[in-house]
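Session log. Operator J.P. requested a structure for one protein chain; no other inputs attached. Running the standard single-chain path with token output.
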Amino acid sequence: MDHRPRIGARMIQLDDIELARALHVLFVTHWIGGVAFITLVALPLARASREAREGWALFEAIEKRFSAQVKWSIPLAGATGFWMAWRLNLWAEFADPTFWWLDAMALLWALFMALVFVVEPIAHARFAAAAARDPETVLRRLSHAHIVLLLVAIVTILGAVAGAHGGLFS
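Structure written below.
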């Protein structure tokens, strides 16, 4: 199939791999963009609240809403990524160090799947109890953890975009 877009009277047609790639970028954008928003906007606002308990309540309200959404975007990002790996038969590339970014994407996805679907539901009550005693400390620790997760995501995205286009990081 000719992968060049058709302009004019002919419609642009996408094959399944192009559609999967477009959806993958959409789902990853929602997921990591949300992590960036929580890390760079919501947590700093919560920590800057005059009353730490109000800050915790603000964070909880925002996180609850985002968590419900990201429970869709993370699995869908994984499904579209798996589809592309399967259709393009990329399995050997996962063992090739020059394609480190493929492994980084899969590991980042697995980490967030575990955090969102296993760790957070189990640890939520514990965090809430700790926040009832000392919300400032809990918000600080969550902020630090989110910064680390966001930095790992940024490195992964840079590597994936550059690597997929034969760039600097491959």
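Operator note: Residues 94 and 102 are 6 Å apart (CA to CA).
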